[in-house]
Design a protein that fits this description.
By secondary structure, the chain is α+β, with helices and mostly antiparallel strands. It has three domains: about 80 residues, Butyryl-Coa Dehydrogenase, subunit A, domain 1 (Orthogonal Bundle), CATH 1.10.540; about 110 residues, Butyryl-CoA Dehydrogenase, subunit A, domain 2 (Beta Barrel); about 160 residues, Butyryl-CoA Dehydrogenase, subunit A, domain 3 (Up-down Bundle). It has twelve helices and ten strands. The strands form two sheets. Strands 1, 2, 3, 4, 7, 8, 9 and 10 form an eight-stranded mixed sheet that branches. Helix 4 runs antiparallel to helix 5. The radius of gyration is 22 Å and the shape is globular. The mean pLDDT is about 95.
Length: about 400
């Protein structure tokens, strides 16, 4: 469990987010103030190791913070999740240069990290070698959180003729540290989806952005031999998604119950004076609460499994990783289904007036529906089934 200090800080931020959640969702403004609240609460260094100035939290502790924030605003939970595992880049024995210094700076100055990723999809941002370092050019869509970050991690592909330490690295994937304020970095402001509106997941473009060789975080992804311990980022992301979905489910049910207790009217044919005395309303809340508890339990188990693989380090086996990623994906699929159900059916126990736009209760469904499409969950169900039935271990990659 999270230490009382961090959970208390996360709860304070959650409660502050909740007050204006519907209004901020409607406005769709970049969450500059919200990121400031996370900084003021000293939550940004939670996942960084103590030797870099962080709190050295376990993954379960980090996930509990993400879930708590997501109960009020899943957009902020989403970009916070990306900040947490992205800020570790370069601290795990990668072959680059800047990782440790970058982590210390993020922790010491409470900087917010953003990622310009989608490394698996072309066109990729090209890194062209220069006498001083590299020049970066290209655009990427769906760069969640980048527009409100202080520092960026940018996925690139080395141009032909790139050499480093005597090795030809042409065509290899690499990551660079880039200052958000660097000349040539721009943001499209083109995120206009129905949910997760405050993740600012629009386009990031780099035009002639100059970086030094010492800004290289790592390279050779997919081209050099790796161990199971080198493939944990996707586990962080998907276990984090399970925590966000669970947070949405908890938050939706909590707000629905507050509405029913304080504002719902009993149906005229129920024979009750209060909506909260209607046995049909009580039965529905019992169903939804039970479903939420199942999501909480499976997500907690998945996060504990990730704690277990983390501590194994270099001794982690591929088979143990496969077991963990299968459990994590099961939690993510289940939590998304529960969140969709709760976020949709809450209106059955709050009443017609609760559909008013000003109430903003629809944001829970819009958020979970949008995030659940991050990559097709039905493919994960097939992957889980293949593992259970045939023992097929998921092939490690950017999405498994």
């Amino acid at each position: 469990m999270t230490s009382p200090k961090f959970l208390g800080a996360a709860t304070t931020v959650r409660d502050k987010l909740k007050v204006t959640a519907a209004q901020r969702d409607r406005s769709g403004l970049d969450p500059v103030d919200e990121i400031g609240w996370l900084k003021d609460a000293d939550l940004l260094g939670l996942f960084l190791p103590e030797e870099y100035g962080g709190a050295g939290a376990t993954w379960s502790q980090v996930a509990e913070v993400v879930q708590t924030i997501a109960e009020a605003d899943s957009s902020i939970g989403h970009v916070l999740l990306y900040h947490y595992f992205g800020s570790l880049a370069g601290t795990r024995a990668e072959n680059g240069f800047v990782g440790a210094a970058r982590a210390r700076r993020i922790a010491g100055r409470r900087l917010f990290h953003g990622t310009v990723a989608q490394a698996a999809y072309p066109p990729l941002i090209r890194a062209t070698q220069t006498p001083e370092g590299f020049r970066l050019n290209g655009s990427k869509p769906f760069t969640s959180g980048a527009a409100v970050a202080d520092v960026l991690l940018v996925w690139t592909v080395f141009d032909d003729g790139t050499t480093l330490r005597g090795n030809d690295l042409s065509g290899q994937l690499a990551t660079f540290h880039v200052e958000r304020s660097s000349p040539g970095v721009s943001f499209g402001g083109d995120w206009d989806n129905i949910g997760q509106r405050l993740t600012v997941s629009g386009t990031t473009t780099l035009r002639e952005v100059e970086v030094a060789t010492t800004d290289l975080i790592g390279y050779g992804y997919g081209a050099t031999e790796t161990t199971a311990a080198d493939h944990l980022d996707v586990l962080y992301m998907y276990a984090g998604f399970a925590s966000i979905f669970t947070g949405i489910a908890v938050g939706a049910l909590t707000e629905a119950a507050e509405y029913t207790r304080g504002r719902s009217r009993a149906w005229v044919e129920s024979g009750k004076q209060r909506a909260g005395d209607d046995p049909l309303v009580l039965e529905r809340y019992g169903q939804l609460w039970t479903q939420v508890q199942s999501a909480v339990a499976l997500t907690t188990r998945a996060n504990s499994a990730l704690d277990d693989v983390r501590v194994q380090g270099a001794s982690l086996t591929w088979s143990h990783r496969a077991e963990a990623v299968t459990l994590i994906n099961a939690a993510r699929v289940h939590a998304s289904e529960v969140a969709l159900t709760v976020a949709s059916r809450l209106f059955e126990v709050t009443g017609a007036r609760s559909t008013a736009a000003a109430e903003g209760l629809d944001r829970f469904w819009r958020n979970v529906r949008t995030l659940s499409l991050h990559d097709p969950l039905q493919h994960k169900q097939v992957q889980i089934g293949d593992y259970v039935l045939n023992g097929t271990e998921p092939t490690p990659g950017f999405y498994s």
